[in-house]
Design brief:
Elements lengths: L8 H16 L4 E7 L5 E6 L5 E7 L7 H13 L4 E6 L5 H11 L4 E3 L2 H12 L6 H13 L11 H23 L2 H8 L14 H14 L4 H6 L1 H14 L7 H9 L11 H35 L3 H5 L6 H11 L8 H8 L3 E2 L2 E2 L2 E2 L3 E2 L5 H17 L1 H12 L7 H22 L5 H6 L12
Parallel strand pairs: 1-4, 4-5
Antiparallel strand pairs: 1-2, 2-3, 6-9, 7-8
Helix pairs in contact: 4-5, 6-12, 6-14, 7-12, 8-10, 8-11, 8-12, 10-11, 12-14, 14-16, 15-18, 16-17, 16-18, 17-18
Length: 449
C-alpha cells in the first residue's frame, strides 16, 4: 500500500546487497578465482564474462599465496584492468589467511558458498566432474555474477567467541556420547539407575557411583562389607572435593541397598562396571572442561558489553545467548533480523504457482550450528517467558492452520533470533510489549494480566 513503484522491501534489500557487492566486484576489476587446498592452489584470472585470461598452479601453502596474488595482479594489469577482486570458497580456515593477504594488498575479497559451486558445477556441463581447474573458474564466474557474499570482518573478540563456541559444541557431543554408561548399567546393574530420579544430573549419585565402581572393580560385595556409615563418609568427602556442600543421603542409602540386587547380566558385570568407571571419569572431566569453556564464553560476552542486553530476554541465559552469537558473529553485519533467521535456515519457504499453494516448510538451509543453538534456547525460554509461552499456546491451539509442537518451537526459535538481533543492534533491552505487539503505535496494546 502506498508503494507506487511496486518495489517490495525484499527488492530494496536485494538491491542494496547487490550495490554493496558491486563496490567489491567492480567492472574495472578482473576476478581472481582460487580453489584452495593443502599444498596445491589453483589460481585463475578471468574477466566478467568468465573468459580465462591466465591460469597457474601454485605448489604452496595458503599462507604463501601472496606471490600468487602479486602474479594475478600483474596479469590483470597487462590486460588493461585497474585491479583484481579475489574470490574463493570458505574452505576450512585457509580462506581467512587468503583474506588477510588480499587485505594487505588492498584487494577486495569475497567468498562463494560451496553449495552454489556444486550446483554450478553440475549445470556447467551436466556432469559430476570435479577438478581444481574447473572449480577455480566456476568460483570466478559466480563472483562476477555477484553470487557471492562479503565474509565476516576479522575481529579479535568475536573471533575468540566463535572458537569457544566450536569448542563447547565439541564437548557437548563428547558428553552426549559418554552417557552410554546408562545403557551399560541397564544391562548389568539396573537397580543403580532406580536410586535417583535423574541419575546423571545428581552430583550425589555420580560421586557415589565413582566410589563404588573405582573401589570394587565389579565386585559389589566389597562396598557392601564397607558398611553404610563409611560409604556415606566417603561420598561426603568426594562431594566436598567437587565443590559441593553435602550429599543427598537418601540416594546414598538407596544405592547401598542396591548393592545386593542380582538383576542384570551378572557374567558381564565386572567388565561393564570397569567400562562405566572409565566413562564416568571421562564424563566428569568433559563437564569440567565444558564449565570452563562456558565461563570463558560468558566472559567474552561481558567484554562485548552484551550480557545485560541479551539476558533482558526473559528465559534466555547468558550462555545460551553466547552459543547463538558464537555462530552468528556480530549481528550488526546482518541487514535485517530476517536475514539472520534465513542464515539459520529457520525462515519459511513459500511454494506458490498461479492458483496453486503448496505446503510451507522451513528452508533448512544456512548454518546448522546456529539452528541447533537457537533450538536449544527454546526449551528454557518457552517455559520462563510469558510472551513465548502465550505464542506457543496460540500456535498449537488455534482453529485454523494449527501447528504441531515441533513447528511451534521452530517459530519460537526464529523469534529468539529476531529479538536477539533487535536488542543488540538497537542497544535497547527486550520489551515484552514490543515483542508481543510490534513497534507500530496502533498495534501496541496493554498485555492482559
Amino acid at each position: 500500500m502506498g508503494n507506487g513503484s511496486g518495489v517490495s522491501r525484499g527488492d530494496r534489500n536485494r538491491n542494496a546487497r547487490l550495490a554493496r557487492l558491486r563496490v567489491l566486484v567492480p567492472s574495472a576489476n578482473a576476478i581472481v578465482g582460487i580453489d584452495l587446498a593443502d599444498k596445491k592452489q589453483m589460481v585463475v584470472v578471468t574477466d566478467h564474462d568468465s573468459k580465462v585470461l591466465a591460469r597457474k598452479t601454485f605448489r604452496c601453502r595458503a599462507w604463501d599465496l601472496g606471490a600468487a596474488l602479486d602474479w594475478a595482479s600483474k596479469q590483470a594489469a597487462a590486460q588493461g584492468f585497474a585491479g583484481v577482486t579475489v574470490a574463493c570458497e570458505p574452505t576450512g580456515h585457509r580462506w581467512r589467511v587468503l583474506g588477510q593477504l588480499a587485505g594487505e594488498r588492498g584487494m577486495p575479497f569475497v567468498c562463494v558458498q560451496p553449495m552454489l559451486t556444486s550446483w554450478a558445477r553440475r549445470s556447467e556441463d551436466l556432469t559430476f566432474d570435479k577438478t581444481d581447474e574447473k572449480d577455480a573458474v566456476i568460483i570466478a564466474r559466480l563472483a562476477s555474477q555477484l553470487r557471492c557474499y562479503v565474509p565476516e570482518p576479522v575481529d579479535e573478540t568475536w573471533g575468540r567467541l566463535r572458537h569457544l563456541g566450536a569448542r563447547r559444541e565439541q564437548l557437548l557431543v563428547e558428553a552426549g556420547s559418554q552417557v552410554q554408561m546408562r545403557a551399560l548399567l541397564e544391562c548389568v546393574w539396573p537397580a543403580a539407575l532406580q536410586t535417583a530420579r535423574q541419575p546423571l544430573r545428581s552430583s550425589t549419585w555420580t560421586a557415589a557411583m565413582s566410589i563404588v565402581v573405582d573401589r570394587d572393580g565389579g565386585d559389589l560385595t566389597r562396598t557392601r562389607r564397607l558398611g553404610l556409615a563409611r560409604l556415606e563418609t566417603a561420598v561426603r568427602r568426594e562431594i566436598i572435593r567437587r565443590g559441593k556442600q553435602k550429599p543427598c543421603l537418601r540416594i546414598v542409602r538407596l544405592l547401598f541397598a542396591a548393592l545386593t540386587d542380582r538383576a542384570g547380566v551378572i557374567a558381564h558385570r565386572a567388565g561393564a562396571l570397569e567400562r562405566v568407571a572409565l566413562l564416568l571419569g571421562d564424563w566428569l572431566g568433559t563437564h569440567r572442561r565444558l564449565l570452563d569453556t562456558e565461563t570463558r564464553m560468558t566472559a567474552v560476552l561481558d567484554e562485548l558489553r552484551l550480557t545485560e542486553l541479551v539476558t533482558s530476554i526473559t528465559g534466555l541465559s547468558a550462555i545460551g545467548a553466547a552459543a547463538i552469537l558464537a555462530e552468528t558473529g556480530d549481528p550488526n553485519r546482518f541487514a535485517s533480523a530476517r536475514a539472520l533467521v534465513k542464515h539459520a535456515g529457520l525462515a519459511p519457504r513459500e511454494k506458490l504457482s498461479g492458483t496453486f499453494k503448496g505446503r510451507t516448510k522451513l528452508t533448512g538451509q544456512g548454518r546448522p550450528g546456529l539452528r541447533l543453538a537457537a533450538w536449544r534456547a527454546v526449551w528454557g525460554a518457552q517455559r520462563a517467558n510469558p510472551v513465548y509461552a502465550a505464542r506457543f499456546t496460540h500456535l498449537t491451539t488455534r482453529e485454523q492452520n494449527k501447528l504441531t509442537v515441533t513447528q511451534a518451537q521452530a517459530v519460537i526459535a526464529a523469534a529468539i533470533l529476531r529479538q536477539l538481533h533487535a536488542v543488540i543492534t538497537t542497544g535497547r533491552a527486550w520489551d515484552p510489549v514490543i515483542a508481543t505487539h510490534g513497534t507500530k503505535p496502533s498495534a501496541v496494546m496493554p498485555i492482559a494480566a
